[in-house]
Amino acid sequence: MAKRERQSNIELLRILAIIGVIVLHYNNPGVGGGMSFVRQGSVNYYILYILQAVFDCGVNLFILISGYFLCRTKKVSLWKPIELTVQVMLFSEGVYLAQVIAKQSALSVKTMFTSMIPANYFLILYCAVYILAPFINALIDRLNDRNLRTLVVIGIVLFSVYPTIVDVLGEIDGEEIIGLSTIGKYGSQWGYSLVNFLLMYLIGAYLFRSNGGIKEWKTVSLLGIFVLSAAAVFGWSMLNVKFGYFKEPSAWEYCNPLIILIAVVVFVLFGRLSLGTNKVINKLAEGVFSVFLLHSVLLKHIPIERFVQGNVFVMLLHIAACAVGLYLACWCVHMVYHFITDPIFAKLSAGHKLEIRVDEPAAAADGQ
């Protein structure tokens, strides 16, 4: 079967979403360190927090896009999660060996082994959702539009609004509240959970089903919602800072209803773009996962401190240059990697068909 041509407007959104993730990690104290180095109360300080509010929806967007385009499928190939897992393992091992060669790490058999463990939260959760997709879709197909809408609303209330309220109460109390969240005993996990991924998948499926109604929204209204939501997240994050909650502010949690709303609005806005089939955009978008895996490693070697403490316009140019430059550098690695591995996986998948399929119920098949 011929491959379906990807929609360039959504491929462009995927590129911008991963660029947003790079910006988030530019800011992240544990990666690029921008928010650790910037002077509190400076113009640069507020700019970084605004960028955080705007781009924090990136991960949610990836899963929402998957839900939108996967919600009709009755089968999935297991070769996809296998390929992604192998890529994570080889990239991790490659990074470690590069650090050994550069004398940044000592050579160790134990570390060589542990580097191969695919401990990547996005990979594991995405693969879980992908494997479950045909079964989720079969359940969704049994719901009429009203019931599906009700399910989405219940999901948002139970797994976005309520757990976020619990986290806010914990911030006010100064200590995480154990056993009160609907996500798990230890709270919402800041949205890094299968529950949040499944919720975003469900919202994506709902957007596909209700596509006609979504188009009735005016673009100016959607832009207004985006600006107000981002402004609310920014103000929320300022309150988090005031109360001294730095570990993972509730404002930036992926399960935060405002972060989810921003992802939905951005997706709908890009869904309205008419770009046709742009081969350059589609080709660049192929490297998104490789960029996700590699950019943090490279970002740690960029001198961010002096830029976030300097002129605001120079800082913005530096952020843009880092995002685009890292994307292109990682994309080049992606091209080399897939040039080598694609023929291998093509041969393996041709000889061994691995798939999960959900068949129609027997009664439906018999026309009963």
SSE string, helix = H, strand = E? HHHHEHHHHHHHHHHHHEH
Q: Main sheet: which strands, in order across?
A: 1-2
- Mind telling me the C-alpha Rg? 22 Å
Discrete helix count:
17
Number of structurally distinct domains: 2
Coarse morphology: globular
Helix content: 55-70%
Derived structural class: mainly alpha
Beta-strand share of residues: under 5%
The averaged pLDDT comes out at 92
Instruction: Please tally the β strands and state the result.
Output: 2
Task: Report the end-to-end length measured between terminal Cα atoms.
Answer: 31 Å
Major sheet description: 2 strands, antiparallel
Task: Extract low-pLDDT stretches.
Answer: 364-368
Structural commentary:
The chain is built from 17 helices and 2 strands. With 368 residues, it is mainly α. The chain has 2 domains: 1-55 and 278-352, no CATH class; 59-219 and 240-277, no CATH class. Helix 8 (145-173) packs antiparallel against helix 9 (194-209).
Please give a quick description of this structure:
Helices cover 69% and strands 2% of the residues. The chain is mainly α and 368 residues long. The protein has a two-stranded antiparallel sheet with strand order 1-2.
Question: Layout of helices and strands, plus pairs?
Answer:
Layout lengths: L7 H20 L6 H4 L5 H13 L2 H13 L4 E3 L1 H23 L7 H6 L6 H21 L3 H29 L20 H16 L1 H4 L4 H24 L14 H15 L7 H7 L2 H12 L5 H4 L3 H40 L3 E3 L4 H4 L3
